From TrEMBL:
Pfam families: HATPase_c_2
Every Histidine kinase/HSP90-like ATPase domain range: 7-123
Superkingdom: Bacteria
Organism: Marichromatium gracile
Coiled coil location: none
Designated name of the protein: Histidine kinase/HSP90-like ATPase domain-containing protein
Amino acid sequence: MRIDTESDVAAVCRVVRSLAEHMAFSRSAAYSLATAASELATNLLIHAGGGQLQVAPLTGMRTGIELLAEDHGPGIDDLRLALTDGYSTAGGLGCGLPGVERLMDLCYIDSVPGHGTRVRAVKWR
């Protein structure tokens, strides 16, 4: 999904929660996924002026849902600092990326200052 407006953030949250429920995730896991999607989508909007958030079911040896957020924004200068609770460059609470890390089972972040950021997060059922 393309994330360009606050409405897009709300839409991706609904899609993620619905997919999680359809895939028989627990209610709490479905809400964790929706919250992580909200944080990633909001970051795309606020920090990069928009981007892409892909949502994909994972099947095979394990069942899960993958969130893949990509943008061509300014990137993250100090990833370690960005993953610190309470740190914010936009005046928020500073719990977005650290929260995604806590809510998801896997979280990989690749960011190149001046070129953009890619976050891959997976929640297993």
